[in-house]
Each structure stands twice: as structure tokens, then as C-alpha cells.
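Can anyone check this?
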Amino acid sequence: MATATSQMRGVAIRAASNVRLSKSAVRAIPLARRTVQRQTLRSLKVSAVASPAVAAPYPEEQELSGLQGKAMRSAMLKEWPEKKEILGVIPEHCFKKDTLKSLAYAACSVAITGACGVLAYLYIPMKASWIGAWVAYALAAGTAGTGAWVAAHECGHGAFSDNKLIQDTVGYILHTLLLVPYFSWQRSHAVHHMRTNHITEGETHVPALASDEGAQSMYKLRETFGEGPFTLVNTIGVLLVGWPLYLLKGASGGPVRGQTNHFWPYAGATGKHALFPGKWTEKALWSDVGILAVLGGLGYWAYAVGSIWPVVALYVGPYLVTNAWLVLYTWLQHTDVDVPHFGEDQWSWQKGAFMTIDRPYGAICDFLHHRIGSTHVAHHLNHMIPHYHAKEATEAIKKNFPELYLYDPTPIWKATFRVAMKCIAVEKDKNGLFVFQTKKPATA
């Protein structure tokens, strides 16, 4: 490995000192760097087995996901590709946005969701005895509505269109109809991308420390009620109220930002760690205008028909399902028993982005949700890639960075229960990584 490293440095020095170096030699530099990374990774695997004196990537008792410890091994690599090198392997056309195509996908999601609502309104009686049919409708419409959520998500990222007016108009309307404060979330989600898997400055699904009082309570609840009941209740709780708690209180947000509120941008930390600094304060308030309009419309609907139940059946049910899908995706994209988080001393943008996990959601969900769960690694490496190019971008990343790309083949239901059961809080391990403690720590 030392020989390979020396060779790579030699190539770099010659490239810097000889302006007439051939193009093929210049292209060899990133190739040499990736070769060293692969050799480093292989040496980590071998050394952990061959020499007890060398620190293993993780302890023998470490519980593993379908990744089999790959994220923890890659987290220990000393050499990481530069951002320019990472993006350079993705075909250039993958970054190009097609406004008509984006509009067509968004319209398709809205049409499917709307069709579900019309059919339910026409053919399902508003009676308690038909609650099973209404639950089925909520599952169908909420699942379809998640596609509209994802389309608005692309607008917030700037991946929908080169026309900013069209992009923000579509995103604002779609997200507002789903009670998402468009500009507020646009800002907080951008922070999430900037500081992914940072233990203090990340945003959304930042794990608690095992020593925290809340984490200790969760461990005790699991111990008291047993893993099965705890996992079921925790899963339902996270999927049902996780999203509104994040919007209202900053639940699972970065500790440095305090208790934030997406509807009241003055809450939380100020200064360097403010979630809505400068112009974002006013933009957050403009988001509230749309939310108030939708809430007013829902209230008038209930008043006009003389009952709240049509609103609950036709809107609230699907709304909750869409929220559950959103939380499920983000939860599983960044959380598992062997996916570490980093302190400031070890974190880098590359490390955080490559800790994202792609998973197998199946053809139906990939179609309805625009591959948000199966191509999310590419999305974190560059959020400007439209979803209809994300699969090709993913293949390029997988081919060029096989040691870093994370894909867990575990069935979604099984991965969900594993995360809900085991991923309660993290502790700093001997390698300086913040790793989930699947068993109750001695300090808890």
C-alpha cells in the first residue's frame, strides 16, 4: 500500500511540474487515487483478521446490517476523493433539467392522487362501517401523494427546472397543499445536505448520545416492555408524529440549533447556527401564508358540509400516510446499526454524503416516488441531478466508487424494524466514530 501511495504521489508531482504532461497521464491521477483507496480498504479487511495488534474497523460484537460493516470500514479510509472527482464520473447530461419532463412527472403524481380522491368520494360511503375501505383509500392516495411531495422536493433543490419562477411556483403549491412550509423546509433540507451525518451540526435524524437522559429512557422502555412491543410502538410513533414534531420542535435536528420551528423562524439558535438566518426568516413567513390558506380552506370545507369527517377521510388520512413515507425514506437513508456519524474532527462532506444508503423499494414505489429511495446516494452527491437521470448517475457512482457506495438489500420492512429496535443512540468508539449502541450501555 505504501508503494502504491508513493507511485500516486509521483504521478501528481510530475503532473504539477510538467505542463506538457499528456491528457492520459492527467486522467491517471484520480484513477491512481482510487486504486490506493481500494488497496487501503483491502488492507483494513486483512489487517483486522491477520494482526490482533491492529485496530479492527469495528468490534467483534458489533451488530451488522445488510451492509456488513461496509460503511464503518469506508469511514476509516485516510484517502477520500475530492468532490470534483466524484462528480466527474457522472455523465454530463445527468445534470441537465428538462422542465416539460419534470412538469409531466409532477402532473402524473397529482393526477394519480386526485383520481384516488375522486373515486373514493364517488364510491365509498361516508359511514363507519366502511372504515376498512377508507383506510385502504388513505394508503393508496397517501402513497401516490408522496410522488407529488418528491416533485416539490426537487423544486426545493433546484433540480426541477432552470426557470426559477416555474420551479418555486410548482414547489410552493405542491408542498403547501401537503402542509409543508416550502421555503422553510427548503432551507433546513439544504443544511441537512451540507452537514450529513455530522453528530452535532447535521439536520434531521441526528441520533442522540447514549448518555442523554432521553436516550436512557428509551433503553429502559425497551428493557421494560421487550424488544417486540417497543419496536412496534417506536415504529408507529416515528412514522406518525415524527414529521410534525420535526417541523414544530426540531425533533432529531442538529443539537447546536436548539429547538427550532419551521413556522416560527425566530425559534432556536441565533448567529452562526441559526436555522433561518437573514433572508430565510422572511421566506419562512411567506411559507406560513400558504399553510394558513390551506388550513383555512380545510376548515371552510368542514363548515360547508357540516361535518369534519369528510375532511378527515379524504384529506387527513392520505396526509398521514404521505408523512409516514417521508419519514420512512429519510430514516432509512441515513440510519442503520453499522452506519456511523462523525464529530467535527473526522467529518467531511464526502464522508457524510457517502454514508447515505440506497435500498430496494421495488418497481411500484420507484415509479410512484421517482426513485427517491433507490438512488439517494447520487442525490446526496449532487442534489441538482433530476430524478429521471438519477439511476444512470447511480450506476456511474457504483462503478467508480464500489468501496464507498452503500446499498443494503435487506427488505424494507425488516430494515425498518431493525432500525426502530436497535438504533436508539450512539457512543464514540475507539476509532472516534459515533456508532449506534444496540445494547443498553453501562452508562445508561
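Reply from J.R.: I decoded it. DSSP finds 17 helices and three strands in the chain.
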